[in-house]
Amino acid sequence: MCGIAGVMLKAHEDASPLDQLATGRWLYQMLQALQKRGPDSVGAAIDGASGFVVTVNGGENERLRVRKTLADQGVVGNWLGGGRDATALFHSTAMPTLAVREELDRQLADIRELVGIYMGLRVMKVMGSPERLNALFYLSDTPGVMAIGHTRLATESDIDLIHSQPFTADGPTVTIVHNGHITNYEQWRRRLTRQGRCFISENDSEVIAAYISYRLSCGLSLKESLDAMLVDLDGSFSVLALTQDEIGYVRDGFGLKPLMIAESDGAVFMASESQAIRQLGVPEVSIHEAWPGEARTWMKQSLALWN
């Protein structure tokens, strides 16, 4: 039993750039409300940061290598988190040149599976509580437009950062959180490996991120990729997915894992439990349960609309 949560701000006539500060705060509050569903680890991904983000899920050796490589390339920024049981996150407001990004990929190729390199996407994980995540990464003060989060109760794979969510796959980049179990994940892991996809864990949830990324690379939209999951992936699942441009959800055909949805003029909310949304105190929000076998997506609205 894990907990998942997501939020997307919607541009509207009364919107303000300050509204973007609500994204991290709302996600943090929802993760607090869902902590009882997953006390082992907690993670979040929030889109909308300006500049360049690097995350490291490895140990001290990997973090030192990334630090040195960034310094050698003249990339200046701030580090958050780190340590044995927390993601190390580097953020630079300056966008690196293509040559610098290619050099980072080249020098870190042998540990690339442990290193995330993103434009505007912050991914953070810790062992323990939402409060610890917030203390290390200031989630409640992080602006953004779309965000997803996860509280984990480990049932099969190891209790460590590598097996904690969110999971991100590249080519194109997609980030997911998942509550449930994929029964045919080994079959799809082998198939996706043959397609050149890399995996860092034994967690069945990681296959979902790679699967959606693979479907996107084949030309499907996010909605079509989530619909395809209902055909290809067996088991129980409620999944939230985040790309550069969209956020969405899918619930398995039997509705075995809970998923509650709420939408207002200003935001969309998704969570494993209705109380995680209700306790936010957002006015004029009606909460309903996602239908079994339902998939839905929302397009990220341009930040220009907030000015």
From TrEMBL:
* Gene3D superfamilies in the cross-refs: Glutamine Phosphoribosylpyrophosphate, subunit 1, domain 1
Q: What is the lineage of its organism?
A: Bacteria, Bacillati, Bacillota, Clostridia, Eubacteriales
**Keywords attached to this entry:** Glutamine amidotransferase, Transferase
Q: Which domain of life is it from?
A: Bacteria
Please give one Pfam family short name. Answer: GATase_7
Q: Glutamine amidotransferase type-2 domain location, by residue?
A: 2-301
- Transferase found in the keyword field: yes
- Molecular function GO terms recorded: transferase activity
Protein name from the UniProt record = Glutamine amidotransferase class-II
The record's listing under InterPro entries reads: GATase_2_dom (IPR017932), Ntn_hydrolases_N (IPR029055)
